[in-house]
Structures are given as C-alpha cells and as structure tokens.
Amino acid sequence: MKIDGINPTGRPGQEPKKTDKVSGDAFASFLKDAMNTGQATQSKPATGPAPVMYPQPVMGQAQNPFQAEALRQLDGTLSDLELYQNTLANVDVPSKRLAPLADSLMQKKDSLVALMGKTGDPKLKEMISQTAAVILNENSRLYSN
C-alpha cells in the first residue's frame, strides 16, 4: 500500500526506491481458489477443549523422599564432576587448585553413598555407585602424584 508523501522508511518528501516487479499468479487468484475449495468441504464443528494430560512420573520424580534427595544430590554432584573435568583439562590450572574441588566431591560422594541404602531404585543405586567410583578414582589420581 502506498501513502502519498511517506516512503517505507518513514521520511516524508523522499521518493521510495523502485523495486523489481514480481512475476507469477496474482494473490486474487490464490484467494479465489482457496474460497472455492473451502465451499466444497464442510468444516467439522469443534468438539471442545483437548483432554487434560497429566505428566507421567519420570526418573526425576520419586515417591520416596530419600530417593528424591538422592536424585537432587546426584544431579549436583555430576555437575561438579563436569566442572572438575573442565578444570582438569585446562593446562593453565595448577594441580593444587584442584584439591578443593576434589575434597568437595569426596564430601558429596559420602553424602550420596549414605542415601544409596535408603533408595529403592536399582538404577539410581547403580548410578550413585558409578559416580562414587569415578570420584574415588579421580581423588586417588590427584593425591597419588
């Protein structure tokens, strides 16, 4: 649409730049086809709102409060392990700066292992066990040198 005196950039008094003509069918022909097609088919009446879908329990949602706490702590510990891994990969970080991270991981490992006996999920117990083994392995590597 063109409004006299205003170009698309909004500056009055300037002429808009000429653009290339677009080729192809006119919009009116598409609209006419769509309207003709719409008359031939009957639209279905709305049946009402969609049924409510309740989320299904997943591993992160536990019935046992100890299991929920173990999941929360495991998530935090795995995040800290990733931080430890990234710090370990940085050659500019001296090994003495890794000690506080390793000590923190050992404390988190102890807390996780204490919760392991109170959870009923064998998969969660296995994950805690594997995480504790990784922490022990990394701790022994750090302090054996």
Structural description of this entry:
Helix 2 (65-89) runs antiparallel to helix 3, helix 2 (65-89) packs parallel to helix 4 (122-144) and helix 3 packs antiparallel against helix 4 (122-144). This protein is an all-alpha fold. It is elongated and about 80 Å long. It has helices at residues 27-40, 65-89, 98-116, 122-144.
Features:
single chain, 145 residues, mainly alpha, 4 helices, elongated
Give a short overview.
The chain is mainly α. The chain is built from four helices and no strands.
Poorly predicted residue ranges? none
Question: Helices and strands, in N-to-C order?
Answer: HHHH
Compute the number of helices: 4
- Beta-strand portion reads under 5%
What's the rounded overall pLDDT mean?
77
Query: Approximately how much helix is present in the residues?
Result: 55-70%
Report the major sheet: none
Structural class: mainly alpha
| Shape call | elongated
- The count of strands amounts to 0
For the CA atoms, what is the radius of gyration?
32 Å
**Distance N to C terminus:** 76 Å
